Amino acid sequence: MRAIDLAVVGAGPAGLVAAIEGAKRGCSTVVVDRNPKPGGQLIKQIHKFFGSREHQAGTRGVDIAQRLFREAQALGVTLMLGWDVYDIRPGRLEVVRTSFVELTSDRPAASLHGATKTESISSAKIVLATGAEENAIHFDGWTLPGVMGAGAAQTMINVWRVLPGNRVLMVGSGNVGLIVTYQLLQAGADVAAIVEAASKIGGYGVHAAKVRRAGVPILTTHTVVEARGDSRVTGAVVAQLDASWNPVPGSEKTFDVDTICVATGLRPNTRLASLAGCQLTNSSVLGGWVPIHNNQLETTVPGIYVAGDVSGIEEASTALEEGRLAGISAASSLGKSSACDEEEIRTIDERLRSLRGGPFCQPIQDAKQELVRIGESACPKE
Amino acid sequence: MRVVHHPILGDLPKSRKAKIQVDGKEIPAVAGEPIAAAMAAAGIRVHRYTADRKEPRGIFCAIGQCTDCVMTVNAVPNARTCITPVVDGMVVETQHGSGQGKLR
User: Could you tell me if A226 and A176 lie in one domain?
Assistant: First the structure.
């Protein structure tokens, strides 16, 4: 059994930064992630980020991931990539290798029949940075091969450089739907249309303008009602919606597509938080069930912290700040603090406030404050 | 199809070629890429059939969360092909139901 100070679940922006801050303060630190590459969903973000310089504006997510990975490695953080957490208790993780291919070396080892490998990790503090998962919507044929999350398509084209299909219908016009549409075009696919159930485009105007300039129509008050095909998608039926969100009979149009991408939002991935016994609360603004936490990001289970999308769907920029805060909090609760922690925490709070400051984000700011308000009585005191 | 040229990412870097067998047919792959990527590049979309209604399933989340893309790999069922890296010579089979074969 490994015995360490800090275990982080999830090698995305929040997790890597939490590990970096912990390691900087002298914590022996392990990061566990089921995916073969570190960086979480940053590795498929090939567009430049918006915002201020402190938040890596102008940098592509994939480059931020590389930088964080190198920094974590340089600080001696152990990265267990290709490992899943299958059980969690306060102070303890049980992990299992996700595949029978060894990922620790440069070359995947040729052991094709390797046995299941498990390990126990005893860790004084745990940060859950488990991120989010894509929402699915249900329509006739939604389980056919060729219907997939927009994020799934994005992973295939940008990380693995493979087109999941040639002609795509995008469902949802939030930023994910708009950006993935553009990236599908960059990768050489056709996007027949974007359908949006609401009467307005969900994402930023600048992204919408880009896909429109590229010739992709955005059909508002329309949704997909059927995926056609026997063993794979061969077409998509789209219908107009009335004021009560019901399809208008006779408005159906069929698109000749082999792929339907669903970009209908994300929800926090709270499975491990729930398994650990963390108290959750439901917040539609934050994307669904989220673990209650105090202003140190500690949950109702002492020693278990959360950071990033698991505690409410936001951006990579907020995930980075939360990861930093969780790492500092966890380390300092072990007596491993640095002289400028107070100053740093103040800066993080300010940055989070400014990131959540716009009119678009005010409801998120309010929801996060509410979470902390509940957390201050429900979570352990310092 | 592989994305060979890309306006942001540039041309596809050189990679270590590998071959895997899918239902007895050899397909080209890149060592270390997920099995699911090699299959998508070869245009194979069905990864498994469900137990009761025998419905086809393929890639859905591509990051190891949903388990829709599981297949039998080297006689081991339920391998998540989106996070299982290719090793040259792997034998991959369409999975029917919960799969047959030895458990690890």
Answer: yes
- Which of A101, A115, A143 is closest, CB to CB, to B85? A101
Same domain flag for A142 and A197: yes
Output the CA–CA distances (angstroms, integers) from residue B88 to A36, A110, A114, A170, in the order listed. Answer: 17, 8, 15, 35
Q: Give residue-wise pLDDT tens across range A159-186.
A: 999 999 999 999 999 999 999 999 999 9
Q: Does the CB of B102 have a partner CB in chain A at under 8 Å?
A: no
Could you tell me if A125 and A273 lie in one domain? yes
Q: Indicate the average pLDDT of chain A.
A: 92
> What are residue A3's phi and psi, to 5 degrees?
-120, 120
Q: CATH number of the domain at B68, please.
A: 3.10.20.440
pLDDT-derived band at A299 (thresholds 50, 70, 90) equals: very high
Rounded to a whole number of angstroms, the distance from the CA of B6 to the nearest CA of chain A is 6
Residue A83, CA distances (Å) to A4, A71, A269, B38, B62 in order: 17, 21, 17, 22, 16
Whether A242 and A99 map to the same domain: the answer is no
A274 and A127, same structural domain? yes
CA distance A347 to A331: 18
**Is B18 near chain A, with CB under 8 Å?**
no
Please give, rounded to a whole number of angstroms, the shortest distance from the CA of A382 to a CA of chain B: 35
Query: C-alpha A187: how far from its chain's center?
Result: 22
Give the tens place of pLDDT for each residue, A110-131. 444 455 688 999 999 999 999 9
CA distance A167 to A183: 13
CATH code at A49?
A: 3.50.50.60
DSSP string covering A209-239? HHHHHTT--EEETEEEEEEE-SSS--EEEEE
